Amino acid sequence: MNQKENRLIITLCLIVLSGVANSLLFNVALFDMMNGLEVTASKISWVVISYTLVIACGSITYSKLASYFQIKSLLIIGISLFVTGSLIGYTTNDFIIVVLARIIQAAGGSSFIALSMILTNQYLTFPKRNLALTLIGACLSLGSGIGFLLGGFFTHFWGWHSLFLLMSMAIFTLLGIILFVPSGYANHKKLTQPFDFLGFIYLLTFVVTFILGVKLDGYLLIITVISVFFMGIHGKRQDVGIFMDLSVFRFYAFNRFLLLSFINSAAMVGIIFLFPLLAGQQFHVSALKTGFILAGISLFSFLLSFVIRPAITRIQGNGQLVVAVVLQFIGFLLLAIFGVYQFAVASVGVALINISFTILTIVINIDIPHTIKKEKSAMGLGIYNLINFLGMSFGPSIASRILNVTSSFSLSFGFFVSLLLVALLLSCVSSIPVSSRKIKQSRQL
Question: How far apart, in whole angstroms, are the C-alpha atoms of residue 218 and residue 263?
Fold first, then answer.
């Protein structure tokens, strides 16, 4: 049993590592892809945006489907879609087909983390469960580091097509899934309630119109608001497994953490999108060198987190949030004022943003489960992950739109400076005694 559990853990880690690395590989190659496909910076951002958009909907969808279909079957489908998208991307030079390939990749890749977490929590013994969760968490950080490095390395020597070929290697994890993943459903039973297709459509409408509204036409955000209204009405139904329970939004502390996390995710992925373009266009830095720089920064931030985590626990109240947001604010300010002229300063700014992202993520992950009722925690954490994905898609969307309209990196960085001022206000407001009491009351519910 121990050997089978160990092999299951290795399989899950490889799957998670593939998904995380794939989401970041192409950020380093955006400049090369833009030139090779002969498109604008705004259009090339769809390589990242389309993937994140589908991941946002897909991760929740797979979690729901795991109550209707066996997890092993869903993982096999996920890997198959992921590899199919990779092979399509490798064989094409058409921009539309490249984006389609990324969408197919995301349709499969969105199953990786969601289903791996379900398997880990339900089908591993307690000691192995802790080991698996630790290793999966390490793979999330490691994937971000090697994603940058591999993206730069493969793009420099073999071109951006090779990134798709590299990701097709995930097909070898199918053997591990077939041999070591147990058969079963989420919560160990098959759900008999009808699948909430209408709720899924409302959620899909919300996500798509939000992203397209930010990127293309602000009027689409009207549909976003309408979809939220209909989700609220639909959430009162009892005859289906509701997709989104909006009642968790009545907790003030939970909402504040959602906003902070949204801004944090938007800023991080926004800088991952902007920095390679800045390096290539302004400083003529190769994709390989950019990959080494981003990999070094990511790995440094990961290692630094082991020092930061015990240090920030000594900071009382919400000072942890304030410190993290201030670091991120300084990073973007450096980029907006000096980073567009000095590459070294730009690199320092990116490092500060990365370190801040690590701190803020740790603090929010620890505190947010305590801001909602216990019976609502699963839904609340699901919404938290959705908001993170929306932030990841919002960041490069708004950055590319500003860059396309103004052709100014300074203004793009300046937008995130203003966004972080809002985050700083939220961090400070949360330290007011009245707000602190509300948090405490929410945690006691």
Answer: 19
Instruction: Give 367's contacts (C-beta < 8 A, 6+ positions apart).
Output: 257
Looking at the structure, tell me whether residues 6 and 20 fall in a common domain.
yes
Q: What confidence tens digit (pLDDT) does each residue in 377-419 have?
A: 656 767 777 888 888 878 888 888 888 888 889 999 999 999 9
Query: 171 is in which domain, residue-wise?
Result: 1-191
DSSP string, 135-184: HHHHHHHHHHHHHHHHHHHHHHHH-THHHHHHHGGGGGHHHHHHHHSPP-
Q: Are residues 159 and 23 in the same domain?
A: yes
Furthest C-alpha separation in the chain: 61
| Structure-token pair, residue 396 | 């490069």
pTM of the model: 0.77
Question: Is 286:156 a contact under the CB 8 Å cutoff?
Answer: yes
Same domain, 61 and 206: no
Alpha-carbon distance 146 to 126, whole Å? 30
Q: Give the ranges where 216-318 is alpha helix by DSSP (H).
A: 220-234, 252-281, 287-312
Secondary structure (3-state) at 208 = helix
> Rounded to an integer, what distance in angstroms lies between the CA atom of residue 370 and that of residue 347?
36
CA R_g for the chain: 21
